[in-house]
Structure prediction request, 210 residues.
Amino acid sequence: MSDYKPAPVDGAEIERSLREAARERILVLDGAMGTQIQDLKLSEADFRGERFKGFNHDLKGNNDIIALTQPDALQKKVDAGATRAITQFFFDNDVYFRYLDKVRARGIEIPILPGIVPVQNFKQTAGFARRTGASVPQWLADRFEGLEDDAATRRLVAAAVCAEQVLDLIDRGVGDLHFYTMNKADLVYAICHLVGLKPEKPAAQAVAAE
Prediction:
C-alpha cells in the first residue's frame, strides 16, 4: 500500500488565484442553456407575447425571443450577477435601439452588446432568422438576389453590408460589438479593417515603421 498523502489544499489561495486570472483573461459563459429562464416556468403564450402571437412556429424554448416578450427574464439574469448581455443578430439597427430604450426604461443598466452576423449564405441566414423570430429586411434580400452561385461576390457584398451596419452603430454611440463569426473569422477581420478597427502593432514594429 502506498504511503502517498496529497498535499493540503488551500481553498482561499485557489480562489484568490482564480479571481486574479479572471480579471485578466477568463470569460465565463452560462452554459446551462437558460437555467434562470427555466425557473420562470414560461408557457408557449408567454414566449410569444403580443408581438409574436400569430407566429407560425412554436416558440417555447426560444430564449432569444423572451428578451422581447418577457423583459423580466433579463432582470432575473442581472439579479443573478450578469454584468452584460449580447443580443441575437439583427440587420435593422433601429430594432436594437428600440430594445435598448425599453431595457433602460425598466432600470436595467448593464451593457447590451449588439450581435452582428456577416451574411455568409443569405438563404441559410434568412431561414435561421425566421425560426428565431429575427426580422430580415427586404433591402437585404435585394442585395443578395442572384448571387446564389457566386460565393466570391457574396463575400464582398457581405463585408460591405456588415461594415455599413457597424459604422452606423459606432456613429450612434455603440462602443462594444459582438460578432457571430460562424467559423469565418477572416470575413470578420476584413469587416473590422473596413471600419478602421485594426490590431495594434507591437512597440518594436511601430518604431520601425516610423
Q: What stands out?
A: Strands lie at 85-89, 112-116, 178-179. The mean pLDDT is 80.
